[in-house]
Design goal:
By secondary structure, the chain is α/β, with parallel strands linked by helices.
Length: 988
């Protein structure tokens, strides 16, 4: 059995039923015998095979056993010949008239089988389609589908007829009527010459501008597959070198298949950079962190194995790439991204970030892509590579013949040169190649390869699928099998993987196919890749689906990209046997593998990749166990929230989509996630939370749901300023995550706990110990380590360790700068402002608070931004500018309903203090005292109590002042905040 592109011809005699009613069977049989002979001779002469005779109907197939690149034109020639020859027959009736046929031809994928008893059999929708097209045709007509028209239009003229509604087809089918053979010599001989010189000249000009102005530029090279985009860029670089320029040029090529995705192209580019640019090699030797990121990227670019751990975060990848490009760009640097149509969103975003961040470098970034898939990569300069005109196509064909292995006896390469290959007249063949290649250099190269190998080419249709299919059919059987096995693995593969799929001694067979220019060795030991993407795609498509399922499952079982391969196996099996008993378990395994890979991407903050993987996991998990589906839904909801798609995050866990199986409510984890999202949006009620708690208490224990429920309580406590209670909830959630072995939740909760403990009643020693634990855990992920660095700096500043605090802040600021973390800058500014204020540097503190407020407002975090505005106004007052500070506080008081608890109490206490400085008791003091009762942040309590103590003293209320100062001192002392405690005691 084999799957392949075939061309099916159906024809039968016009008026046969009426004739059979009026004529004796014996003369009718003689007519049928003559008719069958005409059909058989014509079909066989044109390389087809008659699959069956059904009364007066004949079904013939072209490409069933061995594909030819021109199977569609062969079928049309056979049909036209049969039509002409049967007209010489006469019906055996008294009113004898010429015999007529009507024909339908369709091309498409089919399963072809052969047996001793049944011969060749073709199964597929293409058979039914051809039969229905034949029934549409009237006497003497040939009607074809669009695929046949595409394959044969250079040979035949056709006109569209209105799309027809066919039984079993949901949509009308476009069809065409064949009107005759195409006139010789047509096909654009008078078109303007399209040479690559102009495109190369443009690329060289852009490069020289980049080198002269030392400013980065992005240029996009667009064109259809095989048109020569990559070669154009490479030749332009070669032109520069030949002219004396010395660019460092590196390439990264994206893959259309498998899971290497973003990382494969990036690793290829960075490895080339390390080899080509000495400064990069030196940087990798000197900086262990950059070398570690590159090493982890290499691991991530390999097929994902089960249990993979997160690699570097996207921020680290961006930083390391910028550092390496900057090191390499002492002179002009050319970075080429090839096949960018297959790039993931993360790589496209990285390219954009590189262009934004490296504008002052002599960097030429070239993006090579298909026009229809390049919306995310278009630069200001776009070079569109068009098809070659016939004259240029002919020159290329002659040049390729002359650069062959020497099997021919050619002379010269000019127009009209007489060159023979295997006894063929090259000039005549070149004319056909030029006409039917559609100006695509890849098609031309493949055609000339066939000629050089002794193939006879009649009139080749412009179909890469048909050409590659014909090439594959001419391989020995072991070579075809090996090609199919490699195609399942992916565009790149190893000998180890081939052996895993049962290929005996693959080294020799792979070497043979490499000699045929189908494979090319890679730098990886035992690694190879397909030279041409169409070869990979056609080889994969021709495999039986049963074989694909088996090989995909075997690769997954051995840990090679389990998510991708299990998903592919499940999809194929669903198409083959939707009721297969193994399908639910296979889908469950695929969903679980994709869930694991999506979670790894989420932990790396590669949000676009995570959304894609988790979305696919959710689709596969539908109809299966609720556990996998609910976890996938919650993780996808998290990823969508990170991307800013709040609506999508809500829809994933919405009530309408649950339950999946059985009856009753949605799984507990999903219900908790709904409340958690509502809490983030400020739309959760206490009664709802209590009802959820009661429901959870009455159900089977679910640690994941309990973990999320504690996170819900944590958010509610934080919103009310109850940091001690929030810490307790976070600790409880962390315990559930650890019991469940959920590293994703554990990471999130450790970071949250570190941040919460800054404001909770925990002693400074415990806070610092937590920071140390986090810094050790996230040593390789500075994005997650940043909150711990900031918290450490804050704690050290409060304990009076100025040097330690400044050192931690310097490291945090370095992370923010290198990883370009906008909100990370806000975090650092807050802590730096506190440290400056404690040291009496109130102007610097005010500047930092204002900068943090500006950034938060731009990001839409209004409540926290207002808190920063309040802090800045308080620093203004400490700089002895009471009137300006009072005005700013009064303005902020009008927005106190928008503030969080921290901002509101600080704003109110500042107003009370300002009024007291002017000798007036402010009635807002009662509201401050009310808020203070529910506040369990010791440092915030200390600050507010100290405000009230100073206000009492200014109003001459000595006893109250001493009492409030005592409360402030007790609050600071309870957590070990030595620095502000000393200030309070000095004041007392």
């Amino acid at each position: 059995m084999s799957r392949r592109l075939v061309v099916v011809l159906f024809l039968d005699l016009v008026g046969w039923t009426r004739l059979a009613e009026r004529v004796d069977p014996e003369p009718l049989q003689r007519l049928l015998d003559e008719y069958y002979e005409i059909c058989s001779d014509a079909v066989e002469e044109h390389g087809g095979v008659v699959e069956k005779f059904i009364g007066d109907a004949v079904m013939a197939v072209f490409g069933a056993d061995t594909s030819q690149e021109d199977d569609a034109p062969r079928a049309l020639r056979a049909a036209t010949r049969i039509r002409a020859e049967v007209r010489d027959l006469r019906t055996p009736a008294t009113d004898s008239v010429p015999v007529e046929v009507h024909c339908g031809i369709a091309a498409g994928e089919a399963l072809v089988t052969r047996s001793a008893r049944a011969g060749i059999r073709v199964v597929g929708d293409v058979v039914n389609l051809a039969a229905r097209l034949q029934s549409l045709a009237v006497a003497g007509e040939i009607i074809v589908n669009e695929t046949v028209a595409h394959l044969a239009r250079p040979h035949y003229t056709m006109v569209p007829v209105p799309p027809v509604a066919l039984k079993g087809k949901a949509e009308p089918v476009p069809v065409l009527l064949v009107t005759g053979e195409a006139a010789a010599g047509g096909g654009g001989e008078n078109s303007l010459m399209v040479d690559r010189g102009a495109e190369r000249h443009r690329l060289r000009g852009i490069y020289h501008r980049v080198a002269r102005e030392r400013r980065a530029e992005l240029v996009t090279v667009l064109g259809p597959p095989g048109i020569g985009k990559t070669r154009l860029v490479r030749e332009a670089v070669d032109d520069l070198v030949a002219a004396g320029a010395r660019p460092v040029a590196v390439f990264g090529s994206c893959q259309a298949y498998g899971t290497a995705g973003n990382y494969g192209a990036l690793v290829e580019m960075l490895d080339a950079l390390a080899r080509r640019a000495p400064a990069c090699a030196e940087l990798l030797r000197a900086d262990e962190r950059i070398a570690g990121v590159l090493s982890a990227l290499r691991d991530a670019s390999l097929p994902r194995r089960a249990g993979a751990v997160p690699g570097p975060g996207v921020e680290e990848v961006s930083w390391a790439t910028r550092e390496l490009l900057t090191a390499a760009a002492a002179g002009p640097l050319v970075v080429v991204w090839d096949n960018l149509a297959w790039a993931g969103q993360s790589l496209l975003r990285l390219i954009g970030e590189l262009m934004d961040g490296l504008r002052e470098l002599p960097l030429l970034m070239v993006c090579v892509s298909r026009a229809e898939l390049a919306d995310g990569t278009r630069g200001a300069d776009v070079i569109e590579v068009g098809a070659l005109v016939p004259a240029d196509s002919a020159r290329l064909a002659v040049a390729l013949a002359g650069s062959g292995s020497g099997t021919g006896s050619g002379t010269g390469s000019g127009t009209g040169a007489e060159v023979e290959l295997h006894g063929l007249d090259l000039a005549g063949q070149v004319d056909r190649v030029a006409l039917y290649s559609a100006g695509n250099p890849l098609y031309i190269r493949l055609m000339m390869d066939w000629l050089r190998n002794g193939r006879t080419v009649d009139e080749v249709p412009p179909s890469i699928t048909a050409m590659v299919g014909a090439m594959i059919d001419r391989l020995p059987a072991p070579g075809r099998r090996l090609l199919g096995a490699a195609s399942v693995i992916g565009p790149s593969f190893t000998l180890e993987q081939l052996a895993l799929l049962g290929e005996p001694a693959p080294e020799a067979a792979v070497a043979e196919l490499a000699g045929r220019r189908l494979f090319q060795a890679t730098e990886e030991a035992g690694g190879y890749r397909f030279v041409q993407q169409p070869v990979h795609e056609v080889a994969y498509g021709r495999l039986e689906k049963e074989q694909r399922v088996s090989w995909h499952r075997r690769l997954a079982e051995h840990g090679f990209s389990p998510g991708f391969h299990l998903e592919a196996a499940a999809r194929l099996l669903a198409g083959l046997r939707p009721d297969d008993a193994e399908l639910p378990e296979l889908a469950r395994q695929a969903a679980g593998a994709l869930l694991g890979e999506g979670t790894v991407a989420l932990r790396q903050r590669d949000v676009p990749t995570a959304i894609g993987l988790l979305g696919r996991a959710l689709v596969l998990a539908r109809g299966g166990p609720d556990r996998c589906r609910s976890v996938a839904a919650v993780r996808l909801s998290d990823a969508l929230m990170l991307s800013g798609d709040t609506r999508g995050a809500l829809e994933v866990v919405a009530e309408a989509g649950w339950p999946a199986t059985g009856s009753g409510p949605a799984p507990a984890l999903v219900r908790v996630q709904r409340h958690l999202l509502a809490a983030r949006l400020g739309k959760v009620a206490a009664a709802d939370v209590q009802g959820l708690r009661t429901a959870l208490d009455g159900e089977e224990p679910d640690r994941s749901a309990r973990c999320r429920f504690e996170q819900l309580l944590m958010l509610i406590h934080l919103d009310r300023g109850r940091f001690g209670a929030a810490e307790e909830a976070a600790v409880a959630a962390l315990a559930h995550a650890r019991d469940a072995g959920d590293a994703y939740e554990e990471d999130r909760l450790l970071v949250a706990l570190c941040e919460i403990r800054q404001w909770s009643p925990s002693p400074m020693a415990q806070k610092l110990a937590g920071c140390a634990e986090l810094l050790e855990r996230f040593a390789a992920d500075r994005f997650l380590a940043l909150p711990a660095l900031a918290a450490r700096a804050r704690c050290l500043a409060l304990t009076g360790d100025r040097y330690g605090a400044r050192s931690a802040l310097t490291e945090a600021e370095s992370v923010v700068l290198q990883l370009r973390l906008t909100l990370g800058r806000v975090l650092v500014d807050q802590v730096a402002a506190l440290a400056a204020s404690l040291d009496g540097e109130h102007a610097e503190a005010e500047r930092r608070f204002c900068r943090a407020a500006d950034a938060l407002e731009r990001a839409g975090y209004v409540p926290v931004a207002l808190t920063m505005r309040v802090q800045a106004a308080r620093e203004c007052a400490r700089r002895d500018r009471p009137d300006e500070a009072a005005g700013r506080i009064a303005e902020l008081l009008s927005r106190q309903e928008e503030m969080d608890v921290r901002g509101r109490i600080l704003c109110l206490s500042a107003a009370v203090l300002g009024a007291a400085a002017r000798g007036r008791a402010d009635p807002l003091r009662a509201e401050v005292l009310r808020l203070l009762r529910d506040l369990d942040d010791p440092c915030l309590r200390g600050e507010v109590c100290f405000d009230l103590a100073r206000a009492h003293r200014w109003l001459g209320e000595g006893a109250q002042a001493r009492a409030m100062a005592g409360l402030a001192a007790d609050s600071y002392a309870a957590v070990g905040a030595v620095k502000p405690l000393g200030a309070v005691r000095a004041w007392m």
